[in-house]
Amino acid sequence: MTPIEYSVFLTSVLLLFAILASKASSRLGVPGLLLFLAIGMLAGSDGPGGIYFDDAFVAQAVGVVALALILFAGGLDTNVATARQVLGKGLTLSTLGVLLTAACVGGFATWILDISLLQGMLLGSIVSSTDAAAVFSILRSRSVSLKRRTGALLELESGSNDPMAVFLTIGMIALLAQPDRSPWSLLTLFVVQMSIGALAGWVVGKASVHLLNRIRLDSDGLYPVLTLTLVLFTYGGTALLGGNGFLAVYLAGILIGDGDFIHKRSLIRFHDGLAWLMQIAMFLVLGLLVFPSRLPSVAGAGLAVAFFLMFVARPVSVFVSLALARMSLRERVLISWVGLRGAAPIILATFPKLAGVDGADELFNLVFFAVLASVLLQGSTIPLVARWLRLDVPLVRRKQYPIEFVPPAKSRSNMFEMQLPPDSPAAGKQLVDLKLPKTSLIVLINRDDDYLAPRGGTVLQAGDSILVLAETQDVPAVRAIMGLLAEEGAED
């Protein structure tokens, strides 16, 4: 067997095990990302797999590309109307909150590990970002969701705080490499990186919607290739200009997702699947990179950092950042506890290794252990804490309909899914008696996992999920007839 054939087969086996692990995670009550890491560690040089992998550059390259694609997919699927309601709080958490977390952990690490303040701040910067994908995958596995405002805030924070963590990590490495450099120079670097990143993301996001609607590709299969190219172009081009590429791709994803363009649903599904592939690949590679035999030596320090991060640094950053926000104590407590660490800190821990920072290997192992502790303790208790604080709601899984409507560019009509509440005034009425707007049409009804072709005499029942084709301006009227509150919004 040739090396390339062996590599392809081995990759497929690891991916297959990871997919099966994601299915088993809900039954075992263990976060899927932890199983992905475990598979990588078992396949590595210290495990029965015996695959020797100690290339931090390859691991970092895979991680950076994967993180960019994951952030883009998260932005693409963001509900802009909901995110706008928590925009101020989310941006405060993703900037000031990250800075406070890094400062708290940095000071604690300096004291307990007997290292310099800059080395402590480097550690704090690396572990300062949170992982929304991990949080919501854990909740979905338990069929639990969070109340709308809380969930939206956590999603926006986690999607937007990676750029700040990357900036702080690179900044601390620069200060360690150039001791004579003024810390205030980082302020100028911050303004430049974030400004270029925001501008690039805005330009690409706006231009991409026009491009998708006007390029008229001959094959539908080229549209996913085009959007993938746009992600790589946005990240790489922004980084070459000296901007923050992660901020650019996340903002571009939000702006593209908020627009109307051809093949929108299929492209969102493509990037969601690609994000899952990247998440699995990222955790497998990071699992391969770590040597489990080296973890016991940092277990004590790793646990101390992880517990300080969970019980002190994160709550302090949340309560200070949201001091002026109109939120209940229960919401603040939940947001403090849901600061789950994920792949980003492990990826950032490869930066000091490549930069030749003293003690980089021990730092990587320490971060890896702290992330494991965070995932094990916080990840397994998030649903319980959400229920205890009464901020959980049942997870409503969207039904998969056998038809798909792809509106042309600038179309005034779209297809919307609506579910009739128990007290809907439309329940028990025939469709012909609903007096729907003339430009709206009920296309399909889902009842008890069965599909009904609607007719004028079809009687609606509470709990029915219906697909409505209507002009956007008539959607509020349709929702009122169905007994749905306007602020619940319609998902297309």
Q: Count of helical segments?
A: 19
Which geometry do the CA atoms define?
globular
How many strands appear in the DSSP assignment? 6
What is the strand content?
Answer: 5-15%
Question: How far is the first residue's CA from the last residue's CA?
Answer: 49 Å
Q: Label the structural class.
A: alpha+beta
List unreliable stretches of 5+ residues.
486-492
Helix content: 55-70%
Number of domains: 2
Roughly how many Å is the radius of gyration? 24 Å
Which strand order does the major sheet show? 3-6-4-5
Order of helices and strands: HHHHHHHEHHHHHHHHHHHEEEEEH
Q: For the record, what CATH class of the largest domain applies? A: Mainly Alpha
CATH topological fold name of the largest domain: Na+/H+ antiporter like fold
Oligomer: single chain
Main sheet characteristics: 4 strands, antiparallel
